[in-house]
Design brief:
It is a multi-pass membrane protein. The chain is built from 28 helices and 15 strands. It is mainly α. The chain has 3 domains: 200 residues, Clc chloride channel, CATH 1.10.3080; 205 residues, Orthogonal Bundle (Clc chloride channel); 171 residues, CBS-domain (Roll), CATH 3.10.580. The strands form 6 sheets. The chain has a 3-stranded mixed β-sheet. A 3-stranded mixed β-sheet has the order 8-10-11. It is elongated. It starts with a helix and ends in a 20-residue tail after the last helix.
Length: 792
């Protein structure tokens, strides 16, 4: 029955497809093939999100009952649970390690500077240097794919591009330990972007049952072999990473939906939401467990949450103008940041990093020394200020030792009743510095001169540090930059509107949102994340305002940060909207640059091997001849499937004639054709074929996709683009106009009950419509009714 179904499918599809030209003929009357950008070339490879409905797939589906479907769904939910737990534990480990390293570093430095500031500086510099060196060494020697934030690579994966090494086990290990070293070493970067990559790696490794290379695998979880299932798991991992980084489960779901995914559905929404909720529970449990003090320095400064609920209660209409100005500043500085990092990263990739891994390590160490010198040395040049009298009334201690949670840090001050405002934000962890900038009831804690100095120096350090060979996120540095100029604007607003109840910390929060919006160009997810991490819902309209303004200003200059970095790394993303000029281009013109190589249904093994060695195409149209001698396209066979057939050799035959698929059972499971994630997979050079093997034949009919997607040659490239991206395709056939129409599919034909029959309402509508238009109904040449008279 299956063989008949397959044969009928091939014959039906062949009626719609065109004649194929000879491989040496450049005629434009044949089939063209649109494929993913750079498919088969360079260092990236496209993913097969389309279901290949070949004979092996249909035979496998026929043997699966409702019990298997229920088991399949249950395992998906169980994996979502494991992803949430794994990502939450990884985030706890990273935060605990970073906070303890930072706490020990500042405690030791403060103890030493009581006797000698120079000795304290040397200790501070050496500790940071060791941590950054360990991070750079891990990345360059063990896991090169773990450098950077990883979000552009994950965004490319969910867009249909597989970059080798992105989701491997060693990348996960390098990301975790590299983040600890780079963030704990005081560099101007964060751990939030790497946590997104960490969650994606955990999800991918769970989906493939672990790592075979490091003998850490199991056959039981290897249920999700297709790229479609892996895509869903990686999406859950991305959301879990954001939820763990910011303690923002809803923000994690929206981040996955808005920023990284190219394909979404309601069932996936439920699993992503469930995964983020599990992460929130794991993180909350870990923080409660650490409240007893058994986690060392891990405590109030651990996971990001800057509570500003005790800040400004309301806002006035007069404040909207300065808030809009903050949005404009965020858009300008964000766009400038994207452009400067693009130039810096391009220079590194084209010149500096080509000199070897040793130069990468030297670069990271030099930047570490520069950062340590600036963060320790600049506060020494700043004159201390006396503690304000209002501090004692608000219950805030002044001063506090450096490295301790709170405001008013005493650093290189002559008396015990003074504090150094520049050291409060510079000689501190980034989380504590942001908490100080967001704090309420601390009027005039920072001078304009200190804020401008910090803004200029930290902005420069963030630009220079981004792109080094260490895991690097840009969320927290962006919040640092934005909150600095936001607080600066707040100071001027307080002085201008003297009678209004205005908090400088509120403007610092709005500045942080504006810079992230101007740089990363996120709106909905970023708005929810900022509300969740600040615990102040009253500021939601203001955050929305500055995000809209900053994104509009930033879009006027360049693309978002992740899009710029993806383009620089050669990741061919298909954005949500096609380019405007595609309206004037048709599909036939777009596919003329590549020559189509077609294969006969029964082909010699030697010819297959020769074709695979001579080109890098990943899809080949398969042709057959009718009894009348007409050449017809019967489907599409993938390069990866041909390699599996050549390696196994079980489907070789001596006869050059086609065989009936039902006469010989399929020796392969459908999952055997899946390529391992983030790897190059099987290559033709890895396959050994004897002279006897080369003289044998392969019948490709059971292994080809008999129903690939087809578009007419004169369809606009805009419609082709939308179809290609929304369906997650890898190949798309371009054919001439078909000679006849078999039928039309309408909404009614798709509303089918589980028993295979249409609903009573649909049958009634169909009967009434047919009766009304029975006199005008027409029939095709084959005698089948056209469906023009049905619901359309």
């Amino acid at each position: 029955m299956l063989s008949n179904h397959l044969q009928n499918g091939i014959e039906s599809d062949s009626l719609m497809w065109s004649r194929v030209p000879d491989s040496d003929d450049a005629s434009t009357d044949g089939v063209g093939l649109l494929s993913s950008p750079r498919d088969g070339g360079g260092g990236v490879d496209s993913l097969d999100y389309e279901v290949i409905e070949n004979y092996a797939y249909r035979e496998e589906q026929a043997h699966r009952g409702k019990l298997y479907v229920g088991y399949y769904v249950a395992v998906k939910w169980f994996f979502s649970l494991l992803i949430g737990i794994g990502t939450g534990l990884a985030a706890v480990f990273i935060n605990l390690s970073v906070e303890n390293f930072a706490g020990w570093k500042f405690a030791l430095t403060f103890a030493i500077i009581q006797k000698s500031y120079f000795a304290g500086f040397i200790v501070y510099l050496v500790i940071n240097l060791v941590l950054v060196f360990s991070s750079a060494y891990i990345i360059t020697q063990f896991a090169p794919a773990a450098a950077g934030s990883g979000i552009p690579e994950i965004k490319g994966y969910l867009n249909g591009i597989d970059i080798p090494g992105t989701l491997l086990f060693r990348t996960l290990i390098g990301k975790i330990f590299g983040s600890i070293g780079s963030v704990g070493g005081g560099l101007a970067l964060g751990k939030e972007g790497p946590l997104v990559h960490t969650g994606a790696c955990i999800a991918s490794l769970l989906g493939q049952g672990g790592s075979t290379k490091y003998h850490f695998n199991s056959r039981w979880p290897q249920l999700f072999k297709s790229d479609r299932d892996r895509r869903d798991l990686v999406t859950c991992g991305c959301a879990a990473g954001v939820a763990a980084a910011f303690r923002a489960p809803v923000g994690g779901v929206l981040f996955a939906l808005e920023e990284v995914t190219s394909w979404w559905r309601s069932q996936l929404m439920w699993r992503v939401f469930f995964t983020s909720a599990i992460v929130a529970v794991v993180v909350r449990t870990a923080m409660g467990w650490c409240k007893s003090g058994i986690c060392g320095h891990f405590g109030g400064g651990g996971f990001i949450i800057w509570d500003v609920s005790d800040g400004q209660d309301d806002y006035y209409f007069k404040e909207l103008l300065p808030m809009a100005v903050i949005g404009v500043i965020g858009g300008l500085l964000g766009a400038l940041f994207n452009q400067l990092t693009y130039y810096m990263t391009s220079w590194r990739r084209n010149y500096l990093h080509k000199k070897g891994n040793r130069v990468k390590i030297y670069e990271a160490c030099i930047i570490s020394c520069l950062t340590s010198t600036i963060s320790f040395g600049l506060p020494l040049l700043r004159k201390c200020s006396p503690c304000p009298e209002t501090v004692t009334d608000s219950g805030i201690e002044c001063p506090r030792p450096p490295g301790m949670y709170g405001n008013y840090v005493n650093f290189y001050c002559k008396t015990d009743n003074e504090y150094n405002d520049l050291a409060t934000i510079f000689f501190n962890t980034q989380d504590d510095a942001i908490r100080n900038l967001f704090s309420a009831k601390t009027m005039r804690e920072f001078s304009a001169q200190s804020l401008l100095t910090f803004l200029a120096m930290f902005y420069t350090l963030a630009v220079v540090t981004f792109g080094t060979a260490v895991p690097a996120g840009q969320f927290v540095p962006g919040i640092m930059i934005g909150s600095t100029y936001g607080r600066l604007v707040g100071m001027f607003v307080v002085r201008f509107y003297k009678k209004l109840n205005i908090e400088e910390g509120t403007y610092a929060l709005l500045g942080a949102a504006s810079f992230l919006g101007g740089s990363m160009r996120m709106t909905v997810s970023l708005c929810v994340i900022m509300v969740e991490i600040t615990n102040n819902l009253k500021l939601l309209p203001l955050i929305m305002l500055v995000l809209l303004v900053s994104k509009a200003v930033g879009d006027a200059f360049n693309e978002g940060l992740y899009e710029v970095q993806a383009r620089l790394k050669g990741i061919p993303l298909l954005e949500s909207r096609p380019k405007y000029h595609m309206r004037q281009v048709i599909a036939k013109e777009a596919c003329q640059s590549q020559k189509v190589i077609s294969l006969p249904r029964v082909i010699r093994v030697a010819d297959v091997a020769s074709i695979l060695r001579s080109n890098k195409h990943n899809g080949f149209p398969v042709i057959d001849h009718t009894r009348s001698g007409e050449t017809l396209v019967i489907g599409l066979v993938l390069r990866s499937h041909l390699l599996v057939l050549l390696q196994s050799k079980v489907d070789f035959q001596h006869s050059p004639l086609p065989c009936d698929p039902s006469a010989r059972p399929i020796m392969h499971r459908f999952s055997e054709f899946a390529k391992p994630v983030s790897s190059k997979g099987l290559c033709i050079e890895d396959i050994h074929l004897t002279s006897d093997d080369l003289e044998m034949y392969i019948d490709l009919a059971p292994f080809l996709n008999p129903s690939p997607y087809v578009v007419p040659e004169d369809m606009s490239l805009t419609k082709v683009y939308n179809l290609f991206r929304q369906l997650g395709l890898r190949h798309l056939f371009v054919v001439p106009r078909p000679s006849r129409v078999i039928g039309l599919i309408t909404r009614k034909d798709l509303l089918i009950e589980e028993n295979g029959e249409s609903s009573a309402v649909e049958l009634q509508q169909s009967t009434s419509v047919r009766g009304r238009y029975s006199e005008t109904a027409t029939r095709t040449d084959a005698g089948r009714p056209l469906l023009d008279d049905l619901l359309g």
